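Known limitations

Files may contain more than one protein. Parsers should not assume a single record per file. Below, a two-record file is shown to illustrate correct handling: read the sequence, read the token line, then continue until end of file.
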Amino acid sequence: MATKSFALRTEPHVAEIGDTELLFAPEVYGDEFLDAYQEIQDARRGMGQSEDDEIDVAAVRDVHKSIRVFLSKLMEPESATVFAEMRLPDRVLVELMEWAVELYGGQGRPPTSSTDSSRASRRAGTSGTAPSRSKGSTPARGRSRAS
């Protein structure tokens, strides 16, 4: 008989914004995640253009609020309190939302231990038959900061 083990994350995910660390729940149940995400989708649908071809500002505010509510629902309670007081550019809110969707939406693999990253590891070596690797590099995401 075959046995399959499933790892459950026990340590929170950490989002660093400046000097502030926001802790996100280690695991989120699918229905809770989807219900919170649906609120964003509903608000976005209301953001259509009006008859005079202008964006409905109230609808844009609803989307902004729905993103903040979505993120708060995924955070540890203490972090949600801190987040409620933070003023953040929309760019950061959208990046946080995309990160959360990646974490909880099933695109990443669960870690094998609590110290592992929630992101899937890249395979060693190069892929494809191209003669060289990418000319540019991007900084690694992690918990260290430049001094």
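...continuing to the second record:
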Amino acid sequence: MSELRTPLDRLGVFKELSDVPSARRFHQFAPSYEGKDTWMEYRATVELSDRMAEEWTRFARRWKEHMDHQGRHHALAQPADVETWSEDLLNQFSRDRSYQHWNVIEGFYEWLKWHTDHPHTYNPFHMAVSEPDSSAREIWTRKIEKAND
């Protein structure tokens, strides 16, 4: 079985947003992200074919639109933002297509978490997945299935 089996295994010290000290929550960093396209900074680190670059551009555009609607920068999501986006994806697309979107943006948040220029100490995608009956968990389940194919 894949290492992706348990979402809680992917979480560090902070298992849910309430565990994160106020000083480390993303909203504290909003002023330093204003006007920055953090996605493009990440995207510059990943080499893709032309077709995949177009796909990623589409996925990022949809994520950014969702986060704009939430009133937050695209690099500062809360687990609830991930859950509502996951619901939207599953309502619009197949499970596989939802997974494709989700997996790319989840990777962006993993990059943020490990990149020294960003204060991210948790991944809201993984926190959202920790809820058993969530749409995010449904997409995570597809991720596990694909990893085990």
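Parsers that stop after the first record will miss the second one. For reference, the second record is described as follows. The chain is about 60% helix and 0% strand.
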